[in-house]
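Encode chain A's predicted structure.
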Amino acid sequence: MSAMTIFSGTFCEKDVVVQKIIEKTGYPLLTDESIISKASDLSGIAEKKIGRILENKASVFNKFTHEKERAIAYLKLALAQKLAGEDFVIDGFTGLLVPGAIHHVLRICLIADTAHRIQKACKEKGLDEKEAIALIRNEDQLRSVWVHDLFKIKDPWESSLYDIVIPTDKMSMDKIIALIDENLKSEVIQPTQSSHKATEDFLMSAHIEVALAKEGHAVDVGVRDGHVTLTIHNNVLMLGRLEEELKAIVNKIPGVKTVETRIGKGFYQPDIYRKYDFQVPSKVLLVDDEREFVQTLSERLLMRDFGSAVAYDGESALNMIAEDEPEVMILDLKMPGIDGMEVLKKVKATQPDIEVIILTGHGSETDKEKCMKLGAFAYLQKPVDIERLSETLKMANEKIQQKKQK
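Encoded structure for chain A:
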């Protein structure tokens, strides 16, 4: 028989279906959690951070760090290594990462009418109708964004993505299991030489994506029988140099026969290709209520390859820290609401690894002493020379990298 993936809407009997299929086939179960755990082991990235990718919570710094692309590369590698062994029931979002060319994987979608799902949500969760609708919409949105990211299709239940779409509110459980079993035994999805080759191509593709991610690159990778195609979607000033660098990385992967580079559809759009530069911090949070100043500073840092995001008050900064975990903060002291001194205290109390550079036009020697005692990395006065600030940021990054290596 063949492996299978199960992607489902909430309140669509998924847990019951999965359990009965496992009992019938004897297949081991692969969940998103188990694949995330394996990807974390391979990458060293915290499971929580990889899990956020499945929740469609890409960091505001992602265009500089490519964290989302890197996490997905490791998810693919974890999944590809599993598929190279025995057959599984793959339950969850990660099953959609299996390429369609691997035709010995049965792709199943479970869905039901909204009214039926609302009724089940109310009964199972003790919700009122309004709460149930909100919950289902939120869960469907997560699935919609994930499917759109992978396939550029908005409807997560689009039939072209699956071998069978099962309306669980219109079929008995016995008929659902019988239908899946019948399709699982179908000649169409039995393992063949070509589908095993596609599995090998998937594993090589994952290794290539990981190798590129380690060097700070994010491009689309296609593999067929050892022949690799790299597609560059964002504009780059020195295309030839980038192509040579990408080819040099990929040619080191065992089994690669040829490497071809192509320009994608978005290449001529304004968005610029950015390689993740490990020598400078790419997750810098600028916190200052002077909007024009902080926007100009962000642009000047960007010209020097520092990736930054902006918060205009202390409360917003603390919220962003909880969600996006910047590496460095450049923090003003005098702000309305929660001032910089209080932000510094809270950051160092909850996330001490974030390096905080105070940049203020209203500070005193007493303020400087307090900030340094609280754990600030540096204390600078406005107006600051951009080169001095850049060097301070690089020194902060060196400290961060040294901590990571311990």
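The chain has three domains: 3-189, 215-263, 284-405.
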